[in-house]
Design brief:
This protein is mainly α. It has two domains: 18-200 and 307-332, Citrate Synthase, domain 1; 206-302, Cytochrome P450-Terp, domain 2 (Cytochrome p450-Terp, domain 2, Orthogonal Bundle), CATH 1.10.230. It has helices at residues 34-40, 43-52, 58-72, 75-84, 90-101, 109-128, 141-145, 152-165, 172-182, 187-198, 206-215, 220-232, 251-261, 266-286, 292-302, 310-332, and strands at residues 18-22, 26-29, 32-33. A three-stranded antiparallel β-sheet has the order 1-2-3. Strand 1 and strand 2 form a beta hairpin. Helix 2 runs parallel beside helix 16, helix 8 runs antiparallel to helix 13 (251-261) and helix 10 (187-198) crosses helix 16. The longest helix is centred in the C-terminal third of the chain and has 23 residues, at 310-332. It is globular, with a radius of gyration of 20 Å. It starts with 17 loop residues before the first strand and ends in a 17-residue tail after the last helix.
Length: 349
C-alpha cells in the first residue's frame, strides 16, 4: 500500500457537497460558484443549499431565530456561559455549550443544524454583549453577532466571510467530523470533533496567528525586515499557501476587498499596508499566495471582533458544512478506518 503523509492526494470518500481547487482556483457548493454566491445570496440561503440542496434560506432563518431566542432566554445556558467564559478560550466555551444543549428530537436535518448554528452565534454574541431584542425580522447569523449599530457594509462583509467559511471539502475538521459520524455517533458529538480540530493553529487558528504577526510590526519597513528574518530562520508565516489550491485561494480576493473598503482609521490603513507588504514578500520570495485566513483576520478586526473570536466565527460559518458531511457520511454508513505504516522496531523476544 502506498503511503501519503497527511493523506495528501488520497481520495478518502465521495461527496456531492462541494468541489475545491478544480482548475487550481475554483470553489463550488453543490455546483454553484461560491464566490458568485456572495454577490447574489445570503449566508442563510447558502446554509440551506449545503444542507438541503435548496437555495432558499427562509426556513433556516425561521429556525435560527427560534432556537437563538430559546437559548437567549435559557437561564441554565446563560449561567453556564457566565461560569466558564472567564477561564476558557471561546472555542472551548463553544464546544461546551454545543455539548450541553445536545440534540433533541427535531424533524429535519436543517433544524438540527440550525440549532447548532444558533448555539455558536449565541456564544459569540454573548462575548460581544449584543442586544438582539430589536432585530425582529432581521434575524440573521451575521446580525446576531455584530453590534446593533453595524452598517450595511459591515453586515454584508460578515455575511460574505461566513459564506466563504461555510464549506471546503475534506479539510481536517470536516474529515474529523466524518470520522466520528462514520461510527454512527450523533451529530453533536461529530460537530464537537470538528470544533476541536478547527481550534488548531494549522487549521482555523491560523487567522489569529496571521493577525498577531501583522500587529507585531510597527510599520512597513519593520514588516519587511521582520518577515525576511523569519524566512531566513525558516519560520512559518501563517496565512499563506494551501494544501489544495495551486494558483490562488479564490476566497482571499473577496475578503481582501472588504478589508480595503472598510478601513476606518489610520491604524487600520497601516495594518492593511503591512499585510500587503507581507503578501508581496511571500509572493516574491516563496511564490506563495495568501489563503482566506491571512486577510480574514484583518477583516474580522475591522468588524471589531476580538482576536479570540476569530476562530469561533469560522465555526459559525463552517458548522453547516460539517453537518452536511455528517449526514452524507451517515447515509453512506461506512466506518472510516485507514491503515498505518509501521516504522517501529522489529520483533522482540
Amino acid at each position: 500500500m502506498e503511503y501519503s503523509p497527511g493523506l495528501r492526494g488520497v481520495i478518502a470518500g465521495e461527496t456531492k457537497i462541494s468541489t475545491v481547487g478544480m482548475e487550481g482556483t475554483s470553489l463550488r457548493y453543490r455546483g454553484y460558484d461560491a464566490i458568485k454566491l456572495t454577490e447574489t445570496h445570503t449566508y442563510e440561503d447558502v446554509a440551506s443549499l449545503i444542507i438541503s440542496d435548496d437555495l432558499n434560506g427562509s426556513d433556516f432563518t425561521t429556525f435560527f431565530k427560534q432556537y437563538y431566542t430559546e437559548l437567549d432566554g435559557d437561564n441554565d445556558v446563560n449561567n453556564l456561559f457566565k461560569q466558564i467564559k472567564s477561564r476558557l478560550h471561546p472555542m472551548d466555551v463553544i464546544r461546551t455549550i454545543v455539548s450541553y444543549i445536545g440534540e433533541s428530537d427535531k424533524k429535519s436535518d436543517l433544524e438540527l443544524t440550525t440549532q447548532i448554528s444558533a448555539a455558536v452565534a449565541y456564544v459569540i454574541a454573548s462575548y460581544n454583549e449584543n442586544d438582539t431584542s430589536e432585530l425582529d425580522d432581521k434575524y440573521t447569523v451575521a446580525s446576531s453577532m455584530l453590534s446593533n449599530n453595524a452598517s450595511s457594509d459591515q453586515l454584508q462583509a460578515l455575511d460574505d466571510i461566513l459564506i466563504l467559511y461555510a464549506e471546503h471539502g475534506f479539510n481536517a475538521s470536516t474529515f474529523a467530523t466524518r470520522v466520528t459520524g462514520s461510527t454512527r455517533s450523533d451529530l453533536t458529538s461529530s460537530i464537537v470533533s470538528g470544533i476541536g480540530t478547527l481550534k488548531g493553529e494549522l487549521h482555523g487558528g491560523a487567522n489569529e496567528r496571521a493577525v498577531e504577526l501583522i500587529n507585531s510590526f510597527k510599520d512597513v519597513d519593520d514588516a519587511t525586515s521582520g518577515v525576511m528574518k523569519m524566512l531566513e530562520e525558516k519560520k512559518k508565516i501563517m496565512g499563506f499557501g494551501h494544501g489544495v489550491y495551486k494558483i490562488q485561494d479564490p476566497r482571499s480576493p473577496v475578503v481582501k476587498s472588504w478589508v480595503e473598503k472598510l478601513i476606518s482609521d489610520d491604524d487600520a490603513k497601516l495594518r492593511y499596508e503591512i499585510a500587503k507588504k507581507i503578501d508581496e514578500i511571500m509572493d516574491k520570495e516563496k511564490k506563495l499566495f495568501p489563503n482566506v485566513d491571512f486577510y480574514g483576520g484583518l477583516l474580522l478586526s475591522e468588524l471589531d471582533f476580538d482576536v479570540n473570536l476569530f476562530t469561533p466565527i469560522f465555526v459559525a460559518g463552517r458548522s453547516v458544512g460539517w453537518a452536511a458531511h455528517y449526514f452524507e457520511q451517515r447515509a453512506d454508513d461506512t466506518l472510516i478506518r485507514p491503515a498505518a505504516k509501521y516504522i517501529g522496531v522489529e520483533e522482540r523476544d
